[in-house]
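Worked example 2:
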Amino acid sequence: MASCPKILVLVIFASLLGFSLAARQLTETTQPMTFQYHKGPLLNGKIQINLIWYGQFKPAQRAIISDFVTSLSSSRSEAQPSVATWWNSIGNYHRLANPKTKTTPLSLSFGKQVVLEAYPLGKSLTNKHLVELASKGAQQANAINIVLTASDVAVDGFCRSRCGTHSSAYISKNSQKFTYIWVGNSETQCPGQCAWPFHQPIYGPQSPPLVAPNNDVGLDGMIINLASLLAGTVTNPFGNGYYQGPKEAPLEAASACPGVYGKGAYPGYAGNLLMNPTTGASYNANGINKRQYLLPALYNPATLSCSTLV
């Protein structure tokens, strides 16, 4: 366990991850905020994760993401620390939200993949486009549809104020909602903002970039942002779950611990991490197919601290 420092919302850190479509502005503050449960529903039960690929992704790049999603609920005996162990800590939120009620355990499954390589909506997307793309996944209350945009696709607010976002939209057949996530590949547009610590930061303390565990700065950066947004989606799916700060720009389960990946982290330093002796890559979680990933610390509402895997 690593104690959580005062919230330092730096341009290079996870404040880029917003819940609402009006994502958190990139400002700097040292004012600590109280993490609260706002009495809204959390996602639980059996959740299907669907991937919508927009633009050109190599098969090897798609495998990095799909293996990560599968690793979240893997029952295989991966080396520790594992992606599944990281994800299982989300259960702290469910137990704290319903201490007297036995909720249905959260269970993830890999759903379908939609590949849109021909850029049917162009290469400059609005928030409305993101909802349209997210709707191509399963429109059901127990689904999370993840839109992944290629490195040559511009999205409103991308790099300027966010690396991705999560929100919800109404299912066309009824009044229920489904949740969705968007994450962009920042490799050519803003790796210093959205792929840190695998790229030199644009602002803030300067330190040498780490070697990306899957040898792809853009995709390994996407994993960090996707992991953060998945944690936020489950614990604050509709804007009234767990978060701190204003509802319009909340800090959530992962973004409440910006820039923290291992013990001893501080602004500009990701923390004490594991290193692959062959590649020199830094990581803190093992996945299926011998994958290694770098995942953000999660805020533990029971201990009021940021919890790291290493």
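Residues 14-307 form one domain. The two ends are 8 Å apart (CA to CA).
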